[in-house]
Amino acid sequence: MKFHVGVIGATGFIGSAYRDEIRRAGLDAKIVALCARNRDRLEAAAREDACDFVTDDWRRVVDHPQVDLVIVTTPDALHHEAVMASARNRKHLVCDKPIGVNVNEAYEMRQAYRDTKLAHFVPFWARYEAPFLRAKEIVDAGTLGEIKSIIYRWQNPRPAAMPFTWRDDTALSAGGSIADVGSHAYDAIRWIAGTEARRVLTHADIITPAKPNLGTIYLNDAIEWGGSHTTSESDKHRKGTTFDYATIAWEFQNGAVGAAILSHAPILRKGLAPELELHGTLASLALDRIASTIAIILPGQDVPKIEQVANPGPKNRFVNYVFPALRQHMSGDVPNHPGMEEGWRVQIFTDAAVLSAKRGTWVELAELDAESD
After folding, report:
1. Which pTM value belongs to this model?
2. Do residues 292 and 195 both lie within one domain?
3. pLDDT per residue over 9-46, tens digit each?
4. What domain range includes position 73?
5. Number of folded domains in the chain?
6. How far is Cα 1 from Cα 327, in angstroms, rounded to an integer?
7. CA-CA distance, 303 to 301, in Å (whole number)?
8. pLDDT tens, 186-199?
């Protein structure tokens, strides 16, 4: 099947990257409809994609008779209405994470697709990176024994002078860094370790000073501007309203404990420590994504065994993962790829972590699970 694709949020940071991969997918897909707010960028995108239909109204993409696959890459708060309309119009779906602005939206979207023959995919990309795939192989082989502690560090520092974007705004972001990088981190853990969090205790804050306020700006433009300017080069500044730092203590259903550090703050630089540590009854594992290594240490040892994980470099994610996953779903097979079910499960965790930060207490994930009663 050749997918006929409509992209909502076509000219943003994520939408532009996805369109590039879809263009290079050859016979797998054709982009037939594009939606974005900036007309100049939209028309440029249409020329790149050889697409005849452009609009600033997402409804016209969902209603387009040729579109059978809708890709939603808009800010978090704008997902729900477009996804629900896509389900009503019998469109297959790729929805960026986090799938909703809160767990209630996520549950409704998951339900809209759950008992249909419509295919859906949520891009939790860590699952497809070589070090994570190798870590899962090791865990599945029983090398670590029973996992007792999980440590995660996902630090994605932004330039110090990076301007204010929608990701800094509680009106559009589901939970700042907790939802943005935390959704990737939690999905990777639940996939590798095969367990869900039971409860969380969060300290979160906004530790980045007020940012230059250049008005509405695309993320890639904001990153570029921040890399070549200083905060003093803007006469207007705006303090972020979403968390850009969080430390989350967690307890898992299998009894494992541990913590995560999640951040977009400029001062929390990455590459100094392993991204993921899994400590089991038989051995411990450390995953370093930057170096593409797995380290394993046994009880009583002081020096870990380092495995260099072959990394073939970036692949076309739509050709290699998204389109095969959608076709697998459409054929009636149970997909071994993340979809709206995983998006909802992850949203339970991120919402619980945000709620814990606001309350200053432990929050049970069951409190937010609509099916836990």
Report:
1. 0.96
2. yes
3. 999 999 999 999 999 999 889 999 999 999 999 999 99
4. 3-124+316-337
5. 2
6. 8
7. 6
8. 999 999 999 999 99
